[in-house]
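Weekly structure sync, notes
Attendees: PL, DS, HV (note-taker this week)

Item 1: TolC family protein
DS walked through the input record. Source organism listed as Xanthocytophaga flava. Sequence as pasted into the shared doc:
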Amino acid sequence: MISLPLIRTHRSLSYLEVITAQNNALQNELEAITMRRDKLNAITDLYRALGGGVEK
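Item 1 (cont.): predicted structure, written out as tokens:
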């Protein structure tokens, strides 16, 4: 989704610059989500290693 308000506000920005900036923002968001997932997985692994979890 191209940010038309961004283009209108900064008329000197080219279409390519806008979509590149949006791509960078999405990549950063994806990286943050991946890091959160990894953190939650590490917490789960620690909990299990300390004896927590479902008993078999």
